[in-house]
Structures are given as C-alpha cells and as structure tokens.
Write a structure and sequence with these properties.
By secondary structure, this protein is α/β, with parallel strands linked by helices. It has one domain (8-247): NAD(P)-binding Rossmann-like Domain (Rossmann fold, 3-Layer(aba) Sandwich). The chain is built from eight helices and seven strands, in the order βαβαβαβαβαβαααβ. The chain has helices at 17-28, 40-50, 64-78, 101-128, 151-171, 192-195, 198-205, 216-227, and strands at 8-12, 32-37, 54-58, 83-86, 134-138, 177-183, 238-241. The protein has a seven-stranded parallel beta sheet, with helices on both faces. Helix 3 packs parallel to helix 4 (101-128). The longest helix has 28 residues, at 101-128. It is globular, with a radius of gyration of 17 Å. The protein starts with 7 loop residues before the first strand and ends in a 7-residue tail after the last strand. It binds nicotinamide-adenine-dinucleotide.
Length: 248
C-alpha cells in the first residue's frame, strides 16, 4: 500500500517502540516524516536506519518552547504537515499512597500536557496552511480500565481520551479529524518490566482474549488506518487495540 504518497507527518516519541513502528510504516507507504524525540542518540540511530524520508529532531513535549521549535522546523522542512501522530509518553507505577508528587506531575506533563502542546502547535500549523489534516493520539487501555498502582499513568491517559474528543469537536470546523488508538500491552521499553515478570504475564494473559502482548507494528497498523483516508468518516473516536482487555 502507498496510502501516504506526497504526505508529511510529525511523529513524537519516534526514536523507538510504537512511534518507530509508525514512522517505518508511514515512510514505507510513501510519506515523509519528522521523527521527534527527547532521546537524541536513539533518534539519530532510528532515523539513519530508516533512511530516506526520515528527518530527526529533538523535542521535549513537556516544554512549549521546545514544541514551538519543532513545529517551526516542520513548517520550514515540509511547508505543511498533513498528519500528526502524537505518541510520546512515559509510564510510572507505585501504590497510590506512595506515589510522589514529582512522578504524578512528570507523567501528566509528558502524557497529557505534552499531547495538548503538540496538538495545539501542529493543528495551528494545519489551520494556517489550510490543511484538512488528521491527528492521531496514542492513548491506552488505562483510559478505560485501571490496575492497582497506576494513578499517574491512568489519570494521564484518561486525560488523553477526553482531550482527543474535545480536539475533534473544536477542530472539525477546519476539516481536521482527531482520533486516538488505545494499546493494551505492547512489547516495548515501557512494558519491559511487566513483561519480564512471568507471574505478572500469566495474570495479564488471563485478562486478554488474545493471549500475547502486541507487537508495535500491530499498533502502527491501527494508527495509520486512523490517519488515512480509509477513516475519512471517523473523528473523536478511541480505537482499542488491546486484545479485548478493556471488555473483559
Ligand atoms: N508499550 C505499551 O504497552 C503501551 C500501552 C499503551 C499505551 N502506550 C503508549 O504508547 C506510546 C509510546 O510508548 P512505547 O510503548 O512505544 O514506549 P517507548 O518507551 O518504547 O517509547 C516512548 C518514546 O517517547 C519518548 N519520550 C518520552 N518522553 C518524552 C518527552 N518528554 N518528549 C519527547 N519524547 C519523549 C521516549 O524517548 C521514547 O523514545 C506512549 O504514549 C505510551 O503511553 C504504550
């Protein structure tokens, strides 16, 4: 498939994991993408290994100045941005009564405020250049279900769910669609600690209809569908790609 011929995208959290999988497939399908991440070393390696069509740039999604610089670079590089994959995120867990304020603030600043800042900057660029674009936010099953010890993360992904819907409503007048996908457990760095604990994996499997974690490429497939014209009648939607975890 070459669904993204002549299309440009900004992908945050693109140095590894789900963001990298999105970047690889988007570029394979004909697009050009700004790969944005806070981890410059890994980002450079990833962009080099993808090659043509991948443009690395540093961003800290918690900082409005850094996000503004990323948006300016995207504008200079591409002229216009057709698609935003707002994907950067972090995970932290601890029992509620032991959760430090710093952890809660850092997770909220990255996962929730970061998606607000990046969405505002890139949607602003789309509106300025008259692009009827698509925005895809990375949410999580934890926007809907919870596990013990996930106060910071679950609160942040609950915020992403509502932010996605409000963005869809407010940006509809400009022809911009906004959707999110909600992964369950994906085999990336974020999930590595849980997936290395056999007891935890067995417990989790009992809650999944599909008895394995997801490969990042399976999440990229959903993200790219939402960004493509195949999803032209969808906005404000949260698509769960979580092995049925949130329905059990
Ligand atoms: N892996 C899972 O099981 C899972 C499940 C549900 C949702 N998600 C979500 O998927 C998204 C991607 O996570 P992943 O699993 O690929 O994890 P990952 O750790 O492999 O990748 C996350 C990327 O985000 C980058 N990042 C972190 N903070 C940043 C910041 N302040 N500014 C810019 N970049 C930053 C990291 O450097 C990293 O490259 C996240 O939003 C995460 O919450 C992951």
């Amino acid at each position: 498939m070459r669904r993204f011929e002549n299309k440009t995208a900004v992908i945050t959290g693109a140095a590894r994991g789900i963001g990298e999988a999105i970047a690889r497939r988007f570029i394979r399908e004909g697009g050009r993408a700004l790969l944005a991440d806070i981890d410059e070393d890994q980002l450079r390696k990833t962009a080099e290994s993808i090659g043509e069509g991948a443009y690395p740039v540093f961003v800290d999604v918690r900082s409005s100045d850094s996000v503004a610089a990323m948006a300016k670079y995207a504008s200079e590089l591409f002229g216009q941005v057709d698609i935003l994959f707002s994907n950067a995120g972090i995970m932290a867990s601890s029992p509620f009564l032991e959760t430090p304020e710093e952890q809660f603030c850092d997770v909220m600043n990255t996962n929730a405020k970061g998606m607000f800042l990046v969405g505002k900057a890139i949607a602003g660029l789309m509106v300025k250049t008259g692009v009827k674009g698509a925005i895809v936010n990375t949410c999580s099953s934890y926007c809907n279900i919870v596990s013990a010890g996930t106060a910071s993360y679950s609160a942040s992904k609950g915020a992403v769910l509502q932010l996605t819907k409000v963005m869809a409503v407010d940006l509809a007048q400009y022809g911009i669609r906004v959707n999110a996908f909600a992964p369950g457990f994906v085999d990336t760095r974020i999930a590595a600690k849980s997936l290395s604990d056999p007891n935890k994996v067995e417990r989790l499997k009992s809650q999944w209809c599909i008895k394995r974690p997801s490969d990042p490429s399976e999440q990229a497939a959903v993200a790219l569908f939402l960004a493509s014209d195949d999803a032209s009648y969808m906005t404000g939607e949260i698509v769960f790609a979580d092995a049925g975890w949130h329905i059990v």
